[in-house]
Write a structure and sequence with these properties.
The protein is built from 9 helices and 4 strands, in the order αααααααβααβββ. The chain is of the alpha+beta class. The chain has one domain. The protein has a 4-stranded antiparallel beta sheet. A hairpin with a 2-residue loop joins strand 2 and strand 3. The protein is globular, with a radius of gyration of 18 Å.
Length: 219
């Protein structure tokens, strides 16, 4: 009966371990937050600061720390129903508001993929998120990256709400998207935003709308 509470707590603690901060700190003596505008203790900054091998290791661990507790809850303990929702959300929440970082954690992108992947035994919601992010990465190219994440997660949450049959997954998806979007809105680059479709692009910078592409005069 209380297994979901146990796994929620375990997931939060697992998610709150900031590998992308601690591993570069221990091995290279560097703080991945320094020298980056977003000051994010995440895998991307670990790659930039500590190098590709350490950075990739941190990203894999960020995925795994969210995947493991959810997978155990779903595939080993058989937790189902609405009580599964907090179990799925907990690792993402732990990463975003890590008590080991004075509740100033990361943006929780990798951990959100890991948590949803852990529920693969009952839901393919993770692929909805993957598809949404791929669309805004390669088809409708948004810039800066924070805008891309906001659009991708917003669309994924709407799609999951419409087509996902399990209410616990719908709830988890909506909460995860809210957490990730909140973390990105707080660090949103307001210098400008752009959208690219094939060779054409439109951007809004310095209160001016600009167009670019073959045969298009920039304004």
């Amino acid at each position: 009966m209380f297994l979901w509470l146990l796994m929620t707590a375990a997931g939060f603690l697992s998610g709150s371990v900031m590998y992308a901060y601690f591993i570069p700190k221990w091995i290279r003596g560097v703080d991945v937050r320094q020298g980056h505008e977003d000051e994010n203790p995440g895998g991307t900054n670990a790659v930039d600061t500590a190098g590709l091998p350490i950075g990739i290791t941190c990203i894999i661990l960020d995925l795994a720390k969210a995947f493991a507790p959810v997978f155990v809850a779903v595939s080993v303990l058989g937790i189902r129903g609405v009580t599964l929702a907090p179990v799925i959300v907990a690792p993402v929440l732990g990463h975003a508001f890590s008590p080991f970082m004075r509740f100033k954690g990361g943006k929780a992108v990798a951990s959100s993929f890991g948590a949803l992947l852990g529920a693969i035994g009952i839901s393919w919601a993770v692929f909805i998120l993957v598809l949404a992010m791929l669309i805004f990465q390669f088809a409708l190219v948004l810039k800066p990256n924070s805008a891309k994440v906001l659009a991708g997660y917003a669309c994924a949450s709407i799609a999951a709400f419409l087509i996902e049959p399990l209410p616990e997954i719908k709830i988890a998806m909506l909460l995860i998207c809210f957490i990730v979007c909140y973390k990105h809105v707080r660090r949103f680059d307001s210098g400008g935003i752009g959208l690219g479709v094939g060779p054409f692009s439109v951007s809004y910078e310095d209160r001016e709308l600009k167009f670019a592409g073959p045969g298009v005069h920039k304004k």
